[in-house]
Amino acid sequence: MKGIFIFFCLSNFLVLFLRETEAAQLQSNGIYIVYMGASVSSKGNPRNDRDQILSSLKRKKNAVIHSYSNGFTGFAAYLSEEEAESIAQRPGVVSVFPDPVLQLHTTHSWDFLKYQTAVEIDSNPSSTSGSFSNGTDTIIGILDTGIWPESQSFSDEDMGPIPSQWKGKCMEGQDFTSSSCNRKLIGARYYDEPGSSNTGASGTPRDKNGHGTHVASTAAGIPVKGASYYGLAEGTAKGGSPGSRIAMYRVCTPVGCRGSAILKAFDDAIADGVDVLSLSLGASAGFEQEFSEDPIAIGAFHAVEKGIIVMCSAGNEGPDSKTVVNIAPWILTVAATTIDRDFESDVVLGGNKVIKGGGINFADIQKSPVYPLIYGSSAKPIHTLDDSQARNCVPGSFQDDQVKGKIILCESKDEEYSAQRKFESLKKQGAIGLIMINDDERAVASTFGSSPVAVVTEEDGARILSYINLTSNPVATILPTVVVTKYKPAPVVAYFSSRGPSFSTKNLLKPDIAAPGVAILAAWPGNDTKAAVSGKGPPLYYVLSGTSMSCPHVSGVAATVRSLHPTWSPSAVKSAIMTSAIQTNNLQAPITTNSGSTATPYDIGAGEVSTSGPLQPGLVYETGIADYLQYLCSTGYNKSKINKIASSLPANFSCSINSNSDSVSNMNYPSIAISNLKENESKKVIRTVTNVDQDESVYTALIDAPSGVDVEVEPNKLQFTKNSKKVAYEVTFRLTSSTEKDIFGSITWTNGNYKVRSPFVVSSIEQMPVK
Ligand SMILES: *[C@@H]1O[C@H](CO)[C@@H](O)[C@H](O)[C@H]1NC(C)=O
Ligand SMILES: *[C@@H]1O[C@H](CO)[C@@H](O)[C@H](O)[C@H]1NC(C)=O
Ligand SMILES: *[C@@H]1O[C@H](CO)[C@@H](O)[C@H](O)[C@H]1NC(C)=O
Ligand SMILES: *[C@@H]1O[C@H](CO)[C@@H](O)[C@H](O)[C@H]1NC(C)=O
Ligand SMILES: *[C@@H]1O[C@H](CO)[C@@H](O)[C@H](O)[C@H]1NC(C)=O
Ligand SMILES: *[C@@H]1O[C@H](CO)[C@@H](O)[C@H](O)[C@H]1NC(C)=O
Q1: What are the boundaries of the signal sequence (predicted)?
Q2: Which helix (H) or strand (E) holds 50?
């Protein structure tokens, strides 16, 4: 009986339990990060307070794991709790916190459902391939699982010499020599997992996972003709910025991605001379720490200070709200959408009735429906267990003779077992195939290799059930996957993509942008026999889904913009990407979510990334370092703390007197978020736009506001001249009726040539107090 009880409660408890152990793990290894802010004092002098602390630790052999000195200062070391507390009191120390372990942002977990897909950036409906710069000579740094340098995507044929700004290196390691790097892959570093020198977790920039190789080729792989996943999705695979160079920083090991290593990689990348940093990893939803204890936020802040553009994946914990992570305002946060390609695995029923299923399988069973078809729960369960186990085909639910030679139809409402695991168990019992009912999975093209497995929607599941109910000898078969191109609608927000609003501040709209992240075909380690289908060699290109896959698409776009406009600040590039985003799909209708509702900025931020629009946006919103520091003020930092953090502080800097969460709405950000607005009340925000096109230009405001909120823009015409490149305007929001729901709209400036669009959200809910 106890077993049954656990089963019922598992899905609720599992999440809590995992989070608790995760939290515990974060504390348990004894490593602390000591963050000491900028590497020079705000007066510009080099700092020596770190060395004083380090010398006091000298008697502890091998205590210090990393020290940081280029972009910021600090170190990571094995410390006792008492030492950590005492160091936190030392002058110059901003924070001391346990070294966290962050996760890769592929779909739910690395082992669970390796969702696959194939797409080049060309299939992005907005793409104007070949008509613009390809990112020549910009350098994209990637923090990930390493790289497989032999992949054709990283060939340096026809590439010019390594850009002179490059100061990084190609670290040697296991199966990785200095000749593994070339003019494409110009740098590679790795950070050992402390205390596991010989577990295969360390010692090389080589990718033993696949994630880093996939991400790197999506950002900057060269065009490779005839790439496919065993013939599926065949075409030219290429990255978003094929002319860019790649520097891989291997921060992830099978254990996860350590905060201390991530900070070291940021510190190295800042000195190495990268233009763009791409991170497809992060904390779990609800576990993102505030600035001074969040390695990604800290590293990204100092990178942006030095002019580097930083993008991160939003996370894969959607569609629940408040799941978006990597929300610092200096980061470009990327959500995931589908592309116009479907991997279709059809189910054929008796009478040759075809049901369009999904997923990727290379099954080799009979093409006519000759296999008996049963519904999981109609096979009498083996134990006197609840029927739901059999309905979900949980391993061990059936006796061999119940499933042998048959195709089984199952629900997939349990979260413990992947379809692959269920099929493996059924196959051992002699079953032929598996049909899974799941709307979400239908949309993401999971790979099932040689196994005859297809995923159908709830609606199609009901049709199959009714066929089974009404037929005396129901039969079926499962066909191998075919690729459907020009699939409509696309893009659609992927169900797993993490959603806004941000957990910690409602006054900053996140995510910022959406990009293809479902069923993406990209390079793969050449020796992954586990990913091979039976009888074939390992795949050279592989299909994966996640915001991990969408982030490098945007990194490629950012590198292209940077190559065209080398002097633009990271915030100008970010603004260009956001204000030119697209809100319609390939049916010319608003982009929808996986469940069919119109996507809001909490799903897609400013919209789907355009590959051509950001190259000339017309106007940009510049967000300065001082704006980011004011943001820190509004989250509770005082001037003395900010003084340690910032590399250079305007002499007259002070936190604005009324600094509170409302001030965040006034940051010069390319989107607008207002909270705690009550009926008949109004709030005003200020924005400043900078003209980056011809000197003489007049822009007019177009307002898209739903009923319930009045929006006024003042002035509503902006005049730019040779001497007036920056112009400010005010927006007043007034709620005209009471509502519990957040309200979305947009403000677009246009001069006829360009449309510069900012989404907004107005919420009547009070901002959560900042911890
Ligand atoms: C990038 O563009 C440059 C100049 O247009 C061209 O010479 C180069 O071959 C291109 N590189 C790639 C990888 O497409
Ligand atoms: C088919 O029969 C099962 C039970 O045998 C029942 O749960 C289900 O609702 C029926 N479905 C349809 C579509 O008739
Ligand atoms: C693939 O190569 C890596 C790195 O050389 C190695 O650690 C791994 O064992 C290899 N995998 C297989 C399946 O051969
Ligand atoms: C700033 O805040 C810290 C705590 O974060 C506090 O110890 C310090 O006294 C404050 N400084 C000032 C000038 O208020
Ligand atoms: C600080 O000084 C700069 C120029 O010296 C000025 O533009 C800015 O408004 C001042 N800021 C504050 C908060 O006084
Ligand atoms: C808001 O204004 C309208 C019209 O003047 C009025 O009917 C309504 O009661 C007001 N609501 C509140 C909450 O004051």
Answers
A1: 1-23
A2: helix 49-56
Record the tokens describing residue 362, joined without a space: 């290379």
* Pick from 409-423, 473-487, 510-524: least confident: 409-423
Segment 747-763 mean pLDDT? 97
- From the CA of 657, how far away is ligand 5's center (Å)? 15
Asked if 436 and 407 count as a contact pair (C-beta separation under 8 A), the reply is no
The model's pLDDT over 156-182, given as tens digits with 9 standing for 90+, comes to: 998 999 999 999 999 999 999 999 999
List the beta strands (DSSP E) in 251-403: 252-253, 256-258, 276-279, 281-282, 309-313, 332-337, 341-344, 347-349, 353-355, 371-375
Do residues 595 and 643 touch, judged by C-beta distance below 8 A? no
- In 3D space, the residue among 322, 757, 398, 374 whose CA is nearest the CA of residue 576 turns out to be 757
> What residues does CATH 3.50.30.30 cover in the chain?
342-479
* Cα–Cα dist 271/567, whole Å: 18
CATH C-level class of 30-98: alpha beta
Q: What is the pLDDT of residue 72?
A: 95
Ligand 5 contact, 396 CB (< 6 A): no
Fold of 342-479: Glucose Oxidase; domain 1 (3.50.30)
Number of Cβ within 10 Å of residue 639's Cβ equals 12
Among 41, 99, 126, 144, the one annotated catalytic: 144
CA distances, 724 to each of 265, 570, 575, 691, 719 (Å):
40, 22, 19, 9, 8
With b for 16 or more beta-carbon neighbours within 10 A and e for fewer, the 511-525 pattern comes to bbbbbbbbbbbbbbb
Instruction: Note the pTM of the prediction, 2 decimals.
Output: 0.91
CATH superfamily of 108-340+491-538+547-615: Peptidase S8/S53 domain (3.40.50.200)
All CATH 2.60.40.2310 domain ranges of the chain, comma separated, are 668-771
Sheet holding 682-691, edge to edge: 619-621, 682-691, 726-735, 709-714
- Look up the CATH number of domain 668-771: 2.60.40.2310
Cα distance between residue 17 and residue 384, in whole Å: 28
Which numbered atom of ligand 5 lies nearest the CA of 656? 13
Query: Largest alpha-carbon pair distance within the chain?
Result: 85
Q: Measured from the CA of 650, which atom of ligand 5 is nearest?
A: 1
Q: Give the residue range(s) of CATH 3.40.50.200 domains in the chain.
A: 108-340+491-538+547-615
